[in-house]
Amino acid sequence: MPSVVAAAKPSVFAVGVYSRIQQPPFRFAGTGFSLGGGLFATCAHVVQTLNPATREMLALAVATSEGHRVIEVRPVAVHRESDLAVLEWVEAPPITVRGLRLASTTPAEGSDIVLIGFPIGSALGLYAAAHRGVVAAVVPMAIPMPSSAGLQARNVQALRGTPIEVLQLDATAFPGNSGGPVIDVRTGLVVGVVSMALVKGTRESALSTPTGISYAVPVQPLAALLPGR
């Protein structure tokens, strides 16, 4: 576990909106991680709408020896149904960022995992934290309700569309962890992307306050979003 965390942490970044004329200049939105080649993964809901009037830009906060450096990025692909997005550098900075490798298969239930991100975001400082757990189950994103009274528009859409399976994790994710990698401890491969928004209101409304159960989107839909795939 310590070696997996140490190897992955330098590839995990805070994602947010930056504007020189606002205070604070960087507004945290969620977590993202490097895929290599100047590409980064995060959740679609982390990609914020920008205000041209305040010269906002989508950015990553990259830790350096002197603090944090803000690097501008732009969306390459955004898929709202799976709550996934791929970002890229606007201009490649003079730093080397190792990409995390994606798994090709869904992890087995019971697999040991670690999720890395920025719980509570700026409130705790932009220092990536790791939380361990297991893949408790692989489940459908939306649960069929016993009656129409419990259905919401998002549930109906999820049940009618292509079924989306999510990883149910026996690990606590907090607001700010969204977009962070879920890593299989045995292989060191990313098996999922933490998503607080995808299942909130469709599977477990209690995600607004941590319950010890979290969810992640498997990486197969993410791989399909990469350029050239």
List the SSEs and their pairings.
Elements: H1 2-8, E1 12-18, E2 26-36, E3 39-42, E4 57-64, E5 67-79, E6 84-89, E7 112-117, E8 129-140, H2 153-160, E9 165-169, E10 181-184, E11 190-194, E12 214-218, H3 220-225
Antiparallel strand pairs: 1-2, 1-4, 2-3, 3-6, 4-5, 5-6, 7-8, 7-10, 8-9, 9-12, 10-11, 11-12
Characterize the structure shown.
With 229 residues, the protein is mainly beta. The protein has two domains: 88 residues, Trypsin-like serine proteases (Thrombin, subunit H, Beta Barrel); 114 residues, Beta Barrel (Thrombin, subunit H), CATH 2.40.10. The strands form two sheets. Strands 1-2-3-6-5-4 form a six-stranded antiparallel beta barrel. A six-stranded antiparallel β-barrel has the order 7-8-9-12-11-10. Strand 5 and strand 6 form a beta hairpin. The radius of gyration is 17 Å and the shape is globular. The two termini are 31 Å apart. About 7% of the residues have low confidence.
Features:
mainly beta; globular; Thrombin, subunit H; 229 residues; 2 domains; 3 helices; 9% helix; six-stranded antiparallel beta barrel
Architecture of the largest domain in CATH?
A: Beta Barrel
For the record, the CATH class of the largest domain is: Mainly Beta
**What is the number of E strands?**
12
| Main sheet overview | 6 strands, antiparallel, barrel
The parts where pLDDT drops under 50 for at least 5 residues are 143-159
What's the CATH topology label of the largest domain? Answer: Thrombin, subunit H
Oligomer: single chain
Concise synopsis of the structure shown:
The chain has 229 residues and is mainly beta.
